[in-house]
Amino acid sequence: MFPISDPVPTLAQLRAFLAVADHLHFREAAASLRMSQPALSGAVSALEETLQARLLERTTRKVLLTPAGERVAEHAARVMAAVEDLVEEVAQTREPFRGPAHLGVIPTVAPYVLPVLLPMFAREFPRLKLTVHEAKTETILEEVREGRLDMVLLALPTDATGLVEEPLYEEDFLLAVPADHPLAAGSGPVDRETLKGLDIVLLNQGHCLREQAIDVCREVGARATATTYATSLPTLVQLVTGGLGVTLLPESAVPVETGRRSRPALRRFRDPVPGRTIGLAYRASSARTAEYAQIATAIRTALRARRLPIRIVP
Questions:
Q1: 33 exposed, middle or buried (CB, 10 Å; 0-12, 13-18, 19+)?
Q2: What does DSSP assign to residue 156?
Q3: How far is CA 69 from CA 18, 27, 30, 105, in A?
Q4: Which of 45, 64, 85, 192 is spaced 20 to 30 A from 121 at the CA atom?
Q5: Following CA atoms 146, 149, 151, 152 in sequence, which dihedral angle do they give, to the nearest 10 degrees?
Q6: HTH lysR-type domain: from which residue to which, for each copy (predicted)?
Q7: Which regions in the chain score pLDDT beneath 70?
Q8: What is the DSSP string of 63-99?
């Protein structure tokens, strides 16, 4: 690193020196840059003065690189390549739906909507270089606020400030019980109060679905069991199937999580039916808010076309 007070090479000096290093001829190098030979020679001399090193061995017939010149040529080539990459990347960001985009998704949403959304992104936004990060709500909220993520799919509303929240769809919670549970024999909807006295198993802390289930239980005076927790929704379903309790299951997860031979019985709730709203959130300060709003619209369209057991928010 150069101290701030010391002169540093300019891009023009590096470009001029690289041309000479490539051609080993001042006139040809000047022609390749469409500049005069004296201007080229002056730029190279200025670079040697800045670096306090002789970079070229000049004779009447040819030009050779000194050992220092060979090292500088290698570094200069990397610097100029990096500058070209920088210019190209910035130019890409000026075009809508182009360049990198980092999407965060909570685990209780990712397995059920990504099979629909990933082909949509490839089809509708082919120049967008999408990467997906699955993590709990607290993690992806922190990362979108810090700029490590651009958009997040999660349950709304959040308590985060500085974010635009675009509701995408609503879905009901179903009551999942073991196949041999007395509630498994019924067919009609059940009241929320049914949760009283049941052993309710939940996800581990950090999952927003856990907090939503606790809120439903709290509203009717029910208590979740404190002895059994799951790290994922598939594990939670298996705990219920194994007879360790009952749980609340988002309806979007039903086709995936109850398609096995051994599966829990499901009961709907009477109104008011508990549920959740899933949406897309992004920084209000982002320069790409208009693009993200259009992406939210495209997500709604893709989900509506697949007729998932959800209600699309207009």
A1: middle
A2: E
A3: 10, 19, 18, 51
A4: 85
A5: -90
A6: 9-66
A7: 1-5, 92-93, 225-228
A8: EEE-HHHHHHHHHHHHHHHHHHHHHHHHHHHTSTT-E
